[in-house]
Amino acid sequence: MDSVLLSELGIAGNMSGDNSSLDPGDVTVPLRNLRNSVQCVRDRVRDGESKECNDDFNLQQFWDTLGQAFKAASQGATKLSLVFSKPPLPSAQDCERLADSIEENVLTLATVYYWLPKSQGITLRRIARDATIEVLEGISQLIEVILNTPLQSLSQEQLTSTGGVWSSCDYIHRLPQDNQAAVLSVMASYSAVVKDAIEEMEQAQADNQDPFSDVLDDDDLDSRGNQDTYWSEEDKQLMAPCQGLMKAGKACLKKLSGAVKAHGKVDSPECIAQLDDLADITKEISPNVDDLALSLYPPMNYAGVRLNAARLASVVKKVLEITKSSHVCPEAELAWVQFLDVAVQHNMQKVKDLTQNSI
Fold first, then answer.
1. d(CA 17, CA 263)
2. Which stretches make up the Cyclin-D1-binding protein 1-like C-terminal domain (predicted)?
3. Which residues have CB under 8 Å from 178's CB, separation 6+?
4. Closest C-alpha to 41, from 116, 140, 124
5. Which alpha helices (DSSP H) does the chain contain, by range?
């Protein structure tokens, strides 16, 4: 095993275990050792830290080398799966050589990931880390499947696991290549969650005024006279500004994504850090939209609705504040920032007025 790779990962000792007394007929020993090694490297990638910065770092070279490492990992997984797909089984020594080769691929993959310094963007690094962990987890699962199934047969589970590794490795070609693209990627995922929450609430309102009609039996629907499962007129009045706040969160994500796409820069540490700040604060919009939406289902607790509305309003206003002071907000973008700020204040005031008696 390459001691330099081990040093890069902060892993000491021989992860392959002691195979000096290897039974010539026992191919499971190298497989178990390989599984343990992959899991060890996976955990180090998940919990480890890269360098803060690297003046000699070349981002394009990093992606080229990481792509080669992903390809090698995929090829190693394919060889492993093929060797154990039909008789005859390899000898224990041949299996050990294959395991050593795959372990080297795994260590190289992790080491290359660690080349990516934090100065290139925390958001970008998280995405690269998650993709690397996905590959390592896939290889670990493939080894586990091979160990737990007859060693001279190709099971559907082994086929699925092998395909999972291929898919994880191929995903390298769809990863964002810089922090601007990474931030746009995570914002798109936040927007999708917010969109779903708003549409679910609108659909519940449209379904015969009964948000629980799709989860109750006909007998329950016929016998139920409990108005706690319906929205009162007062409830509906309160829902309007709450939905206004939710839509403001959605609009904020959409407009900010456009601004990041148009004006986002990755040519200085300051700009990269500002993009990370935007990614971190916008992450808070979707869970707060969800919390507010859930509190709107009957029976409504007005104090709880008011609290959740205030939290969402605070988050959106914070996003607008950070946006306004960042490089993605030149004068041409100020109009929508100011418009949404007023909209949030207006809807929050309505919520306060309608829930005044609940506090």
1. 52
2. 216-321
3. 59, 120, 121, 124, 266
4. 140
5. 3-9, 28-47, 59-83, 92-115, 122-148, 156-170, 179-206, 218-223, 233-263, 269-282, 285-295, 302-324, 334-354
pLDDT digits 0-9 by tens, 36-54:
999 999 999 998 877 777 7
- Which residue from 275, 285, 281, 260 is spatially nearest to 344, judged by alpha carbons? 285
Query: Which tokens sit at 163?
Result: 């395909």
pLDDT for 66 equals 97
Q: What are phi and psi of 322, to 5 degrees?
A: -65, -40
pLDDT of 317: 98
Q: Report d(CA 41, CA 307) in Å as an integer.
A: 44
Please give the model's pTM, rounded to 2 decimal places: 0.85
> Is the omega angle on the peptide bond into residue 24 within 30 degrees of 0, that is, cis?
no
Q: Domains of the chain (ranges plus CATH)?
A: 3-174 (1.20.1420.10), 179-358 (1.20.1410.10)
pLDDT in tens, 202-260: 998 887 555 555 555 555 544 444 556 789 999 999 999 999 999 999 999 999 999 99
**Radius of gyration in angstroms for the set of CA atoms belonging to the chain, rounded to a whole number:** 27
Q: For 43-52, 172-181, 217-226, 272-281, which range has the lowest pLDDT when averaged over its residues?
A: 217-226
CB-CB neighbours of 225 under 10 Å: 6
The identity of residue 30, as a single letter, is P
Q: Which pair of tokens denotes residue 318?
A: 């914070």
State the Cα–Cα distance between residues 255 and 336, nearest whole angstrom: 8
CA atoms of 116 and 59, how far apart (whole Å): 8
Q: What DSSP letter does each residue of 176-196 carry, written as one string?
A: -SSHHHHHHHHHHHHHHHHHH
> Cα dihedral sign for 131, 136, 142, 148?
negative
